[in-house]
Amino acid sequence: MFETAEVGHRIDKDQFDREELRLHAQLLEAQRALRDAKFPVIVIVSGVESAGKSEVVNRLNAWLDTRGVQTVAFWDESDEERERPAYWRFSRRLPPRGSIGILFGSWYTQPIVQRAFRKTSREQFAAELVRIAELERMLTDDGALMVKLWFHLSKKAQQKRLDKIVRQERRKLTPYEKSFGKLYDRFAKVSETALQATDTGPAPWHVVEATDPRYRDLMAGRILLQALEQRLARRKAPAVPAARTVQEPEVGAHRAVLDTVDLRATLSPAVYDKRLAQEQARLNALGWHAYNAKRSTVVLFEGWDAAGKGGAIRRTTAALDARLFRVIPIAAPTDEELAQHYLWRFWRHLPRAGYFTIYDRSWYGRVLVERVEGFAAPEQWGRAYGEINAFEAQLLDHGICVVKFWLHLSREEQLRRFRERKQIAHKQYKITAEDWRNRKRWGAYEHAIDEMVARTSNARAPWHLVAADCKRHARVTILKTICDSLEHALQRN
Amino acid sequence: MFETAEVGHRIDKDQFDREELRLHAQLLEAQRALRDAKFPVIVIVSGVESAGKSEVVNRLNAWLDTRGVQTVAFWDESDEERERPAYWRFSRRLPPRGSIGILFGSWYTQPIVQRAFRKTSREQFAAELVRIAELERMLTDDGALMVKLWFHLSKKAQQKRLDKIVRQERRKLTPYEKSFGKLYDRFAKVSETALQATDTGPAPWHVVEATDPRYRDLMAGRILLQALEQRLARRKAPAVPAARTVQEPEVGAHRAVLDTVDLRATLSPAVYDKRLAQEQARLNALGWHAYNAKRSTVVLFEGWDAAGKGGAIRRTTAALDARLFRVIPIAAPTDEELAQHYLWRFWRHLPRAGYFTIYDRSWYGRVLVERVEGFAAPEQWGRAYGEINAFEAQLLDHGICVVKFWLHLSREEQLRRFRERKQIAHKQYKITAEDWRNRKRWGAYEHAIDEMVARTSNARAPWHLVAADCKRHARVTILKTICDSLEHALQRN
Fold it and tell me: What is the 3-state secondary structure (H, E, C) of chain B?
């Protein structure tokens, strides 16, 4: 979920100053329109420790007209509050219609902290998240606009910031600050669960990279502005449900999550032969082990055209006993498949206990090609993220090992391969007009991939973004990743 | 939840024959339109043991064109099915677009049975219900029409039916049948939880009284027909979400849940004085006990105009120490209240630990007066049932004792009291034009009350329907009910 907020967004001072002027004016304008529109705006400010949440709140307050905004900080509960159901404290401090409430701390804080410190069980936490989703649905059904901001720092960035505080302020970390740094991984996992469970169409999360304060603040302001403007524009047709058509606003140069993949990675033929043989032997053994343990595996391959999915799949299946796997190539749906929910055609191929199903392209087509090409309407692909998460949760809960690959390659390498395919007789069938068309939509795909990774990558079923400019490197990485994942799953047995 | 399905609906044979002819033709007509409309219809047939579910399925099959309908019975899981995630077996047998699938047994069966036999924990059960709601939302988002039928028998009716089977078939009950009879209460509670958690706007439950087979079958057919016709009519505007405007179809003479209240109940003045004093003393002691135990109580009064809410509240508060309670009269909302979610004004008055809040009218106004008078739009009051259940669940989870009263009186008695009020000087202020207007809408209110009880009464916070033709009887009943509820809540401490 947080991959897209670790790509290194930065804004320089000049650009910030220019952008700030514009944003400030636009926010005030939107706020004026809000007064007449009479819906409440609930801004939730949350995120990892030392991401600068209070600075963001100060900045938003500086940009907004104070008469129409109130900041509500939720510290420790008072006696008054403890003696009533948990939401009483929130309900009495929500903004009235026509104004903005900035919630610094919210209904997410306690459940996440308590779960991270293991004061609540997994089930209690899950139940709490359902209650939160219900609460937010109630508010948005009633017309509220919810803007949920999560400020993220990578583990390294957080540590750096804590160190800087200590140096600048010539003091030691408080025990509280220390515990957060140490608990980073656990907090990340718990937060991810919370965010994905409450990332709904009418109340989506916005994860903001907080490493660079200028980027962080501008992005927060832009997201609030975009949400306000979209909602104000939609005011005339309030009965129509909001589709998740939101593409995050851009601040500075766009950096896609794929930009974090180091495409220089390569493997020499000699090393390749050796390592491939190693991993294939390992997978073969693991395959039989999984069969005996009745542990199923689902591997799916997505990636740019000509990134080498086919070759990688062949290297994978070559390692497995032919009785143990099926490869399901996903093309356009059949009539029978079109008569059902789009997930139906993936459900039907799920493996029996102990077997492998390898999907060559997958259910992610809904939020990739179908989104980019307009085959699915925005409300269809918009709700698919949640549907896919629920679908994969069922597989994972059933004990199935799920491995997801995106094969990434550079535009230059893709072009080289396209040309090569045209020239080599037995590869000509592989290149079609569609490939060239897709190539033109590289930018649109990048955005779709960003959102796909943000909304569907999680600790139990992460996206593996594989550098595939060097096919040898890609194949070994893929085999190793499948082996590692399956080994891990088998240990849970 | 099941109160409205224990009111004694019956249909005689002549009427059944006439109605059946008409229904049969109408269903075939709707089925023809469905073929072009190309959405799938999922009919879920479930309910208590021996309610005649298989007879209903047979009947529906007889009425429908077999080419567009398939019945899917879910018996024990096969090996094939057990080795895959639970929904695999369902996903592969859902009806394609344009046809009807009758699911005899469904995703509800296993979770309810396993919870009733305590094979799963409360938390696991709750998580399963969330998954079911997600699944159904996915299907309805995709265009499916869901018709969820629950066939109900009272405990007595079920026992009678089981006895009859034994007599007719000259055999003993199977151990399975025996266990269901004995577990009736537990099944009722678990089913109620399941139904309320999954009773959503796009996939509402229909509880059908199954005591009289003719009523049961006709009602099932009528519900299916109504759902089909409404959906087909809405086909041109599929983007607009379906509001819960569904009033259950009527089959034969309407019997309201209030008809089950025995209004002849009465109490002589002498007995009244004695019992009132008894219950008031009891409540006084319990009030202090609750204060010390920090157990809060919320009592709410709804009822027909002139049913005696004020008098009953005064008898209640007279028993309590003045420091321990507040009475909140609910009139039209203030400006400040209108600027918030409608539940906000009830949240704000929640009692601190150990105190009482008595609401004279309540949040149920949303689904009573606001519904009947059109102050709330259908989608607003339609989603209020779920919101209210979630709100009350928060109070109950926090340990608050919640007691809900509807004071019922006959139309004749109401008229007598209206006239009396007009004549007695100090009571004149109590009777307004609004009271007369409400009286005219008695029938509309009866429907609203039926739905309110069906959707918001549950084991933890049941509706108490109090016979109030005799005020003395009503007051003593109310005091006793509050005492019993509070005593029960205190034992849980």
Answer: CCHHHCCCCCCCHHHHHHHHHHHHHHHHHHHHHHHHHCCCEEEEEEECCCCCHHHHHHHHHHHCCHHHEEEEECCCCCHHHHCCCCCHHHHCCCCCCCCEEEEECCCCHHHHHHHHCCCCCHHHHHHHHHHHHHHHHHHHHCCCEEEEEEEECCHHHHHHHHHHHHHHHCCCCCHHHHHHHHCHHHHHHHHHHHHHHCCCCCCCEEEEECCCHHHHHHHHHHHHHHHHHHHHHHHHCCCCCCCCCCCCCCCCCCCCHHHHCCCCCCCCHHHHHHHHHHHHHHHHHHHHHHHHHCCCEEEEEEECCCCCHHHHHHHHHHCCCHHHEEEEECCCCCHHHHCCCCCHHHHCCCCCCCCEEEEECCHHHHHCHHHHCCCCCHHHHHHHHHHHHHHHHHHHHCCCEEEEEEEECCHHHHHHHHHHHHHCHHHHHHCCHHHHHHHHCHHHHHHHHHHHHHHHCCCCCCEEEEECCCHHHHHHHHHHHHHHHHHHHHHCC
